[in-house]
Every structure is written in C-alpha cells, then in structure tokens.
C-alpha cells in the first residue's frame, strides 16, 4: 500500500498481530495456571485415589481441550484482530499463532502425563509425539478450515471437501497408521494369546491386536477395522486373567451392529461442517456456523447416549464370559486406580464405576466420590471470554482510560477489522478537510482494502489521487473497480482521471 506509513503510524500496522499474540498468550497462561497446574496443586498428598482422580481429571481435560482450543484461538484471533492494514500477512499470523497454540497444548499434555506417571523412560520426545499424532487430524481440519473457500457455492469447495474427507478417512484408520510410528506396534505373544483365548470362548474369529505405547492404562475396540488395542500401561498393570476379562468387554464391541458403528463414525463426519465455518458464514451468515455447531453437539449427544448403552451391554457380556465375574470387577477397579480415572463423571461414556462393579457383583473398595469440580474450567472459560472481549474492545478501553482525542482513537481502532474501515475512513475525512489530498487518498485505499466489497471507498481514493495530481495512481486504483458490477463507480473514476490529466489536480 503506497506510503501508508505517512498516513497511519507504523505502530498501527503491528497493533493487530500484537493483540492477537497477547490474547493467545493470556489464554494459555490462564488455562495452564488455573486449570492444569492449579488442579494438580490442589490434590492433597495423602488423598485417596478417588480424590486424586478428580483433580487429575480436571487437569487432564484442561490439557486435552487446550490442544484443540488454543490453535482455534490463535486462528480466530488473527481473523478478528489482524487487519489488511498490517504489514504482516493475516494468513501467516494465523498459522503462526495456531502452531503456537498447538505447541502450548502439547506441552500441557506432556506436563500432566509427567505429573501423573513420573518422568518417561523414553524421554520427552515420545511424550510430546503421542499427543501430536493423537490431535493432528483436528489440527489438520483447523488448518483446512482457514483455507476453506469464502462461499459454499464456490467450485473450489469440491477439492477442499476431498481434502477434508481424506483427513477424516485417515483419522478412522489412525490405529493402523500409528503402526508405522514408534507409538504403536503389533501386540506381543502374551497379549495375542489372551485375545485368542477370549475369542475362542466367545466363538468369534480373533481380531488384530495392537499395543499403543503409552503409560495410561486403557483398552480400545475399533469395529470398523476389526482391531483390539491395549496400552502398555494396561498390559503391565493386569495379570492374564484380568486382561482376558477386559478383552471380553472389548470383543463385545466388535459384535456391535453396523448401525451403531456408523453412528460412532458420524461424530467425525460431524466435524466437517465446523471446518466449513468460513464458507457457511459467507453464504448463510452467522446462522451457518451456529447450525454446524448445533449439528455436532446433537450428534455427539446421540453417540454418547447410544455408546453408554453399548458400554453397559459390553460390561454384561464380559461378566457372563468371565469364569469368575469378580476378576472383571477387580480389573476395572485396578485400571481406574492406576490411571487415576474418575470413579464418577457427570456425563460419562462408560457409566459410573460403582455401578459397573455392581454389575460384576463386586463390592467397591472405596467411598463413592463426587464428580470432578467444574469451578476451574468455568473460571478459565469466563476469563478467556473476557480476554477476547478486552482485545476486541481495546480501542474503546484505551480511549476511555486515557481520554485520548478522537484521532488517536481512530488510529488505534484502524488496526482491528471490526473498527477498521470506518476508523480509517474517518481519518481520511479529517485529512481531506485539511487538504492533505495524498494522505487522504492513501487512507481511502487502506479503507478499501479493509472493505473490498465497498466500491465507494475505492472511488473516493481515485478522487483524492486526482485532487493530489497523481493521475497514474488514480488510474491504478480505478483498475480495481470491476467494470461490470461497479460500472457507475468506474465511469465516475474515469471522468476524474481525465480531469486530473487536463488540470493537474488541485495542487
């Protein structure tokens, strides 16, 4: 943009990126201090495992959510706060802040893992590499969302949707893809033998068995792949009888109906409209992204309800298949205790532990605790909302606090898209009143770059360039007016250019 620094101070161009960076850092610090570290510090050293699990769950959830939310905060901050007036590309700022947010979330996840299980024997690389692979599909969707077309009706939506579907497809095959990384491997002879024994007892073909190399004890079933997976932490924690009882539970999931399997997969596909928030916003307005969010929430709730019923059915199948139901109950309680999994959750996907133990006919060896507290996450949500609001309304806040004059306010507001066009236009009007024609023209050019759909701003730039006697710049600006959609503005601009060439302007 020609000589913008002569019309708008250099600091204006950096205000948007600086505010976006400050917003991301403030929210990261808030989540880290209040939710992650705060929850871990609040756990008494002598507390029973059920109480420690309550605090750990809040920290673990905060870390997991931060991996997903912080990149979105970074991208959204760039969209909301970085104006085309900036000397730094908005896309570059968005990708940089998104990557910083993802890295911050990964550091939080590694910190929680270290606090729960102690230092990793494999070192920090694998500890961080795990969450990177786990969340990379979501981060890929966020990146694709930034590069989505502006309108749903655009033909470029076709290759974009192909890219999104490939990410979702790879996500569903993630257990098999992870076999090509240090984080997963084919299960050893012990685990494979246990699975084969459990499969023969249920008279089903043995599935493929995978070991996920993570210390958190857990087991998984992937019906659409015919795969059962155990974590290293679970294999180390359970004896053969306990592992076989857990295997019965997972094998029951492999026998689920095709409809339930497709329903579980639909939760991933429901992320596609959220990734398409930009074209939905361009075509349907604010209703588009809101509808996408409602669809995802609705599908997630249906999957949770149906999944809970399937978990209870799998528990019953494991109890019926086990040679002694107490073995399954003992394996469940040990898994929860070692992994510090909350015994009670408000909206759990597997039911409450004491109820699951009752199904196995086992008396719980603990007092039923309260579910994890919501106070810290609520503080983080409110604090993050206020932080974003403070960044967006920072021009008004600065104006109110410092008592700055109107021109200083508009210079500050010009850096932020929500104020940008009108603020720059106000500065241009002030410059025109002082007969600073070139400066006014530069400002109108800036306003037109902020609001490219408004031909009036570009026409005004042509007029002021003509007044300044810079006919070549006036003609260059006029070329940006579409001769079909902005025919009247283009005709007016051409008349001004002819007048400029004849008179030399008002210099």
Output the keywords:
71% helix; 507 residues; mainly alpha; 24 helices; four-stranded mixed β-sheet; single chain
SSE ordering: HHHHHHHEHEEEHHHHHHHHHHHHHHHH
Q: Give the uncertain stretches in residue-range form.
A: none
What share of the residues does DSSP label as strand, in percent?
A: under 5%
Largest sheet: 4 strands, mixed
How many angstroms separate the termini? 22 Å
Radius of gyration, whole Å: 29 Å
Helix content: over 70%
Mean pLDDT: 86
Q: How many β-strand stretches? A: 4
Q: Count of helices?
A: 24
**Adjacency order of strands in the biggest sheet:** 1-2-4-3
Estimate the global geometry from the Cα principal axes.
elongated
Structural class per helix/strand content?
A: mainly alpha
Structure description:
The protein has 507 residues and is mainly alpha-helical. It has helices at residues 4-7, 10-41, 49-81, 90-117, 124-146, 157-172, 174-177, 189-202, 232-237, 240-254, 258-269, 271-275, 277-284, 287-321, 325-339, 353-359, 375-392, 394-402, 406-413, 417-433, 437-450, 455-468, 471-478, 487-503, and strands at residues 184-186, 208-212, 219-222, 227-231. A 4-stranded mixed beta sheet has the order 1-2-4-3. Helix 8 (189-202) packs across helix 10 (240-254) and helix 14 (287-321) packs across helix 15 (325-339). It is elongated. The mean pLDDT is 86.
